[in-house]
Amino acid sequence: MTKPYDTLLITGAAGRLGTELRRGLAPLANRLRLADRTEVRDLQPNEEAMVFDLADADAVLKATQGVDAIVHFGGAPLETAWETILDSNIRGSYNIYEGARKNGARRVVYASSVHAIGYHTLEAHIDTDAPVRPDSLYGVSKCFVESLSRFYWDKFGLESVCLRIFSSFPEPADRRMLWSWLSFDDCVRLVTASLTAPRVGHTISFGMSDNSLKPVDNSKAGHLGYLPQDNTERFRAAVEAQKPPLDPKAPAAFYLGGWFVDIGHPDDEASK
Amino acid sequence: MTKPYDTLLITGAAGRLGTELRRGLAPLANRLRLADRTEVRDLQPNEEAMVFDLADADAVLKATQGVDAIVHFGGAPLETAWETILDSNIRGSYNIYEGARKNGARRVVYASSVHAIGYHTLEAHIDTDAPVRPDSLYGVSKCFVESLSRFYWDKFGLESVCLRIFSSFPEPADRRMLWSWLSFDDCVRLVTASLTAPRVGHTISFGMSDNSLKPVDNSKAGHLGYLPQDNTERFRAAVEAQKPPLDPKAPAAFYLGGWFVDIGHPDDEASK
Amino acid sequence: MTKPYDTLLITGAAGRLGTELRRGLAPLANRLRLADRTEVRDLQPNEEAMVFDLADADAVLKATQGVDAIVHFGGAPLETAWETILDSNIRGSYNIYEGARKNGARRVVYASSVHAIGYHTLEAHIDTDAPVRPDSLYGVSKCFVESLSRFYWDKFGLESVCLRIFSSFPEPADRRMLWSWLSFDDCVRLVTASLTAPRVGHTISFGMSDNSLKPVDNSKAGHLGYLPQDNTERFRAAVEAQKPPLDPKAPAAFYLGGWFVDIGHPDDEASK
Amino acid sequence: MTKPYDTLLITGAAGRLGTELRRGLAPLANRLRLADRTEVRDLQPNEEAMVFDLADADAVLKATQGVDAIVHFGGAPLETAWETILDSNIRGSYNIYEGARKNGARRVVYASSVHAIGYHTLEAHIDTDAPVRPDSLYGVSKCFVESLSRFYWDKFGLESVCLRIFSSFPEPADRRMLWSWLSFDDCVRLVTASLTAPRVGHTISFGMSDNSLKPVDNSKAGHLGYLPQDNTERFRAAVEAQKPPLDPKAPAAFYLGGWFVDIGHPDDEASK
Amino acid sequence: MTKPYDTLLITGAAGRLGTELRRGLAPLANRLRLADRTEVRDLQPNEEAMVFDLADADAVLKATQGVDAIVHFGGAPLETAWETILDSNIRGSYNIYEGARKNGARRVVYASSVHAIGYHTLEAHIDTDAPVRPDSLYGVSKCFVESLSRFYWDKFGLESVCLRIFSSFPEPADRRMLWSWLSFDDCVRLVTASLTAPRVGHTISFGMSDNSLKPVDNSKAGHLGYLPQDNTERFRAAVEAQKPPLDPKAPAAFYLGGWFVDIGHPDDEASK
Amino acid sequence: MTKPYDTLLITGAAGRLGTELRRGLAPLANRLRLADRTEVRDLQPNEEAMVFDLADADAVLKATQGVDAIVHFGGAPLETAWETILDSNIRGSYNIYEGARKNGARRVVYASSVHAIGYHTLEAHIDTDAPVRPDSLYGVSKCFVESLSRFYWDKFGLESVCLRIFSSFPEPADRRMLWSWLSFDDCVRLVTASLTAPRVGHTISFGMSDNSLKPVDNSKAGHLGYLPQDNTERFRAAVEAQKPPLDPKAPAAFYLGGWFVDIGHPDDEASK
């Protein structure tokens, strides 16, 4: 059967999650172009690799040539210094969108983050239309790309799905992840749904597995057709045995962003 | 066990869907009265048939005598000339409601349509309270019956369920139906729920199977107790192999009404 | 200064309100074409008159030739027999919209009515997006035109404003009108705003003066720029002296439609 | 593994539901303190019992000493005389909250009731933020505790979950319970989720099993992680065979509170 | 002209606000019955006085005989000990509602308070349907009467308006009152509107003058027809000169309840 | 009388609007510090000036020393090249917020823009919580500062008001400005309200005069106490005489952003 895409660009492809995506997205494209700042290993016959910084506009323009869709998971993955955020996430993502526009890519799937809305509470049960409340400069950069991609859709017709990934790790590592976890397999399912849904326009979706505790409402992304199949129940006993409960009045316990709300300004932290 | 109804009138009973309803609704009534413009075949012992036009007020008044509930699936099933819409769907449905009122029927289940709200987008994720946006004169006539039935409930206490059926076919025939399909079995489940729910007042419900892609929110019809049991996943590979994807910017791809939004005025079409 | 329109068609022009509109809308067009079933009197130099039934499609098609906009206030103005509603309001309005489409009119301002939403309560404080709840066949026909005009906008780009007029009389005649009254001057202001607003698409607006008691929320029609300047306070003492209060538990006191909710089916009433 | 609580106080522990809670909550605490007006039987090794009236502030203060969390299911369980409601439910619950505050309990799970919102209709599909509409003095007392517990959370940081239990009986006893039933096992699951969710602040949750007919929206309590596992389908045939349907226009059929809306004032009833 | 009511009962009539109401409501009734725990002075010819405690059910039943409507402003006006709240506000208001029901009064206007929703923030811009968040036991008692009166309306058809009065003082006394002030004249206007609106059912209204800073949305009470005519601008310069601004991060600055959120539990305060 | 602030920093102070703010805000502070890339003329005794680029972090840090509040109107005022947007608006505003945080300023009033939500339609009547839909890179940079300032409030307690200014010009220059105009006097009133409101936390407000056509809902900013006193009616005749109406189907007519939605990518435009 024909694959939905000929060439798919994956940024941030050298990391652990990138490895999962290489495996999981292979059925969707004839060729995967893998981009990262560091070399990608174990290249498969259907893969090609490019090493560059996202802040390098020329390199990004070149990397997006001949690409049908982009899975943009690259950039700084955590709170860090402003200059890094500015270069890797803001300037870098702008370069990706410009590359996509100039080279005619049809769709971008972007790894946004819970940290774009980290200062909303669990009890608020927000949906994907709630105003942003970033909990970090990292989160602010995610908001930037969400609005940038909205602009590229409204004005240039470039489709985007922004995935607000909660906690994508091999296993839930603490009590918060018992509700915030996104399994690698569900992450692949979510990106696959985002790439294959017939129409996405500009869509924001939360990214969690089917955990029993549900603090947000993802129904407005129902047109993606994402059906998570994992949950954290099989990890619960072990996690609860190893990690004491958080004080329910601690900010990290009631804000969606978890411990991100507790960290200070990265430039202050750096100077400590 | 006692059946919920003694006599049930089904309009539009001669068609393919009518055949499914005859089979599926038999457990709900001692007697099915089958109405259509053309003769209904293979009458069963629990069935009786009547042939007449819905626009014939006297015939409808007679057909609704002694009826406890009405499953009103008759009338023009597609976009067509105004005079036909006016006679079959507007005048015809008025006759049904007047017959129900004068003869004391308790409940009407009406085959409304996605085309009453065809100009809403998938991304809007509307619920059943959203303002109507018909995509055709056919859709306008569905809106008419939805408001007419609201009036008969508010003023005369005649209960109605208006089912906005998306795509009820033997199998999903194109990529849109991968999300819009209502299997015949689920259609029977939906009508059954509408007839047996303890209280419906005036209820509008979307009509789809449990497909993975969910572009609308049917929670306000939760008091019907409809639980779809089919979905389109087993048809997906075959459909996707045979039908190319729609351009995501094509109106037929992002409006709920699909290709109905592309057709012109029926009176123009007729004169072509 | 150039007038916004060259030729304006006013239907229902022979009545009391029509007379007000002739006077009030004169500044908006070089020529007013006045249509009614009965002859319009006292024609002014800027006016021309046509006598026909709205149900006569050919006559309507002719009357809409060379027209830039239509103020459609014709048709049955009260609850009446179904056949009259069907001919004058449903078929008649369809003819107007077809005439507008075929002859290239740019905008229609339609006299809808509170009776399209007459079964909502004052306490519900609905806005213009609330689902319709007609209180009469007359109200059902208003809902029909609201959905028909939505269709003509979405598919054919013909703009419409549907004015849900509450009580447009020379003076408030009873206690309900102390909140539901629309003065003739405010009615002219509302139609003028509807004709001159830069963009209306398909807009529904409530039609009331600036009375102190405000049972509905018209903010979603704010882009019309309608600013009522009358209110009922100067009539209050006289009305309250002459009319006893309604029982607050009487349907006519708590439904927006007032006494319309108390009348039975017009066909029953006729046979009394 | 460590249990989440050391000592748990259960009020209303002598009744049928109390017996279920004793069994079901045993895994959550080292010790269950059981309180009721009547003696609790068959004390287990992990249990201790106290007999007192909730209206006795000193007794309640003593009973809440050394308690980590309280499952407050005591008080009058049905509509009854005002003086009883005032003493058992209003004064009694105040005593519980004061005891919890003074003795440093961390969380209270309170048996509120559908009767706090009994005058909402099924068709309204309210969520847990809808304004209260009690159907009885009993329901008014439930509203009182919901607002009292909100106050104790906002001002004193004492967490509460208010469970609006619909119909918790061994089996569904009538047609209404086909949708309103909460199985004992699901009731235990709901209380367990309320006690173990990492953060509840002040949460209101509906309490029903996973019945097919869903008249309310519980998504705002999703952070409890309650997953019902029972439903009424296996009882449907028997219930429908024994109980005739309600008139869909009867208040008891369309208000959530069921037959509670039909009873008069308890002080009138008492004097009959 | 006939007055709307024959006899009006005012509770809490001996205080400063009671004096304003006596003067302001005189045009609405032939006779004012004035109730308070202390003697009302300067009785006018249209007035009669009764001295009793609201907690005395027999006295209240007697005082409500022959009364057409009740303006219930009595009870504890501030945070105070639980036993006082319970007797004066909870038991006392129950007595008023029972008296109204048994004696056939048509409407009650109740002095609820901002303190029923004191833990909402200014930035939330709540409307009158927002869930309650009392800031004191006093506020909890206001919530109690709001739900009690809802019950008396839904079950017994006794109309009520609950006025959430913000700050009704002769003049704004601090910076918060620059937005929360309700002038005495506007208070009289609000009670008058509540007594004369044709239909109120059960209505909750905020009570503020037309101050420029508007932290809440009162549009759902629009059917009262209340039009405030005062505002605080003429007091601004003097208030700002005398009172320093609050820290914008202080709870008393961002919660609607103001300094009420800072006070502790009244029983603790009493024992200090 | 004491002024609310000692030192106020105004960025973008050399422009026409800056001149208005210098005059209008003088009553609010003992000293105005005026910043711009070009020299500010006609310094008054209460003023001091600094010339620097916002992209210069050290200069901004120095300029924000000893400042109590900042009126941040500097940066690129129109769509322009990405590198300029990045330096002047993104990096520059970050510098302002870091300066404010490090130097302890209490509040920032930021000139956001309608172009942050330019792709919403007039008919949508959005409020300030609607998701952003920027119509330009300029608009994307406004969204960036709105989310950045939200972060500085949530994490560091620095208050901000983001003013989405529509069209602030000496007079309305075209038909769109008949509804989008913000007079200079009203602009000063809006900034004054933002600086003097007792509590703003993080507030977004639309910025328009009191024009009759109202396409958005600003009620959620009611706690600012902004009362516009100008409107465009006195300019209407002249504007309508000189400017032809827009086609109501033109994007510039129905999107809030006006002609901004028609311009292409600035980097394409530059290379033309």
TrEMBL record, chains A, B, C, D, E, F:
UniProt GO molecular function: oxidoreductase activity
This protein's UniProt keywords: NAD, Oxidoreductase
Q: Which residues form the NAD-dependent epimerase/dehydratase domain?
A: 9-169
UniProt key word NAD = yes
Instruction: Say yes or no: keyword Oxidoreductase present.
Output: yes
Under the heading Pfam families, the entry gives: Epimerase (PF01370)
Family of the protein in this entry = Belongs to the NAD(P)-dependent epimerase/dehydratase family.
Instruction: Output this protein's name.
Output: NAD-dependent dehydratase
Q: Which organism is it from?
A: Sinorhizobium glycinis
